[in-house]
Amino acid sequence: MQNISTADEPGSPDEVATLYHLLTWINRTLRARGASRNLSAGVASALWTIVNHGPVRLSVLAERESVSAPTMSRIVAALEAQGYIARTPDPDDGRARLLNPTPDGIELISNARTRKAQVLAEAIDGLAPDDRVTVGRGLTILADALRTTGPPDPHR
To answer: Side-chain half-sphere of 129: how many Cα atoms within 13 Å?
Structure first.
């Protein structure tokens, strides 16, 4: 596995390519080892957000997931058709709908979290305590930076 070198200039194409490759590999590995009823990563992420932050409006969900409203509308329709979420009237605006997880949606995310979390826990258990802190801090910093670097990609 390729490492980030301290000789690489921060933000250099080599550094970015290596980081992207590592993130892709980690994501693919967690998906493969912690698979959950064939939900795509984007659909599973949206359901996770609804379970953990619902009820939520579609527009807010699209923003949180960094996708366009039409893309999120398709994801929500699929989740609703599978019985993982339900739409209810927004008490603050009768024209709007809130997305709520169903018991099946909650169970699916809980089970998926358990399998993927176990894979991740096994990897983290093998790290030295200082490395655990470094990994957690690094991922938090990267996630926060990604949240603040521009509008959602309309093609996702």
So the answer is: 0
* 83 contacts 102 by C-beta, under 8 angstroms: yes
User: What's the pTM value of the predicted model, to 2 decimals?
Assistant: 0.64
How far, in Å, CA of 100 to CA of 50, rounded?
Answer: 6
Q: What is the pLDDT of residues 46-87, one digit of tens each?
A: 999 999 999 999 999 999 998 999 999 999 999 999 999 999
- Amino acid identity for residue 77 in this structure: A
d(CA 127, CA 147): 27
pLDDT tens-digit series, residues 72-125:
999 999 999 999 999 999 999 988 999 999 999 999 888 866 677 778 888 999
List helix spans (H) across the chain: 13-33, 41-53, 58-65, 69-81, 103-125, 129-147
Half-sphere exposure (Cβ direction) of 86: Cα atoms closer than 13 Å: 6
Cα(87)–Cα(114) distance, rounded to whole angstroms?
Answer: 26
